[in-house]
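[Q] Does anyone have a clean structure-token version of this?
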Amino acid sequence: MNDRSWDRLLRSIEDGLVVPVLGRQLFTGPEGGDDGLQSQVARRLLEFHGRDPDAEPLPRFRELDEAVSRIKNDCDLQDLYADVHDIIGELTADGECSAPEPIRQIAAITHFRLFVTLTPDDLLGRCLRRRCAVNEVVHSPYLPTSEGSDLPNDWQSRTAEVQLLYLFGKSRPAPMFAIHAEDVLEYAHNIIARGGHVPVKFLGELQQRSLLLIGCCFPEWLARFFLRLTNQRRLSDTLRRREWLIEPLPPEGGLIRFLRTYSQETEILSDIPPHEFVRQLHQRWLTRHGAAAPLAATLPSVAEAVPPGCMFFISYCRSTDLPAAERLFAALVAEGVAREEVWFDRTALEPGQDFRDRILDGIRSCRYFVPLISRPADALDEKFFRREWGEAVDRAKGIQGRTFVVPLIVDADYQPQLYERVPRDWQDGLDFGHAPAGCPDERTSSLLKRLIRAERQSRG
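[A] Here you go.
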């Protein structure tokens, strides 16, 4: 690409007209090496099932599919999903620090509001959470009915939130994500047949925007299908929007011949490795938007102390309700609350003792204590959030005449009577708000606005 082409692409990104679609080639080692995440998962899976991963070469970027095909007849296929899920968890235990540099770089480009990932790990989501809230949309035919989701109708107004689609499912200890070629075929069929949990709204937005297909490693049939799926017009229609396909393809291969014949709006960039393309894109974007634009911890960091006298202290179960807490954070910021006036511990790990003490001190000085209530959290007992709730109950006993505890139910349905382990003081004396998945409903939004206004007035 020359400078003019880069400028045209960046202007489209800045206008919100481009969606990155990220494939497994970006989840590799430095300089696009062979030690990619999928390769590591495949090798560990073979070792776990007593196979030598070096006995036969694993085809590059098809490693997991090949590993599963070698062992699926000697074990329960359903158990392999749990094995793969566990291995992914082990390999990505360091959070966003486990993410390859291209993933961190693409996540740092704040003009991207929609993302599509073709891999089941959550590394991209973790990187995105370093700068904003993330709404995850998971496409899987096998999700429980209650877990189905799609692009929210008001997603464009949620300026502090990005939307992330897991096109082939997200890692779970169950057959809810694709681990082999037949899975991928089933996911494609589910879309064609409009089966379970097809993200119709998300796909509709993709049809109206240009796509950056980076290191996708699609089989040829799937590349053609995906390009047509995400276009409102025939591929041969020159009036449709465009795509950039960044992938090292053989110059005389069937896909390139097909695209050059029938999809001239698809720009094929085979002479630049995907990781290098992302590096240049990130650097050029930084040049246009200054040093303040890189990936930044715009959400509170786990290492930060609770600011003295912060307005909102969000308390929640980190292992079950982190996405809901992030969305509530974004909603409060959208209402004009400064980021430093809202605090929550966003790590998935239990804090150390010193940090626990600082958290409890924060509860003793915050203006509003906001516990997030969900059925998964209600089922847990020995978690640190219950210490937080106990501290808030004790402090509330000395507060008269003003609101302190603002409990919010983050489940989709609103049934306060179902939560057996919520403190009795709250059940008997407080009106629970409703913020499904962390997004306040109209009544709760009005309540939060009143509380913000009251606090501003009290501070003069």
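[Q] Thanks! Anything notable?
[A] Residues 291-304, 348-352 have pLDDT under 50 and may be disordered.
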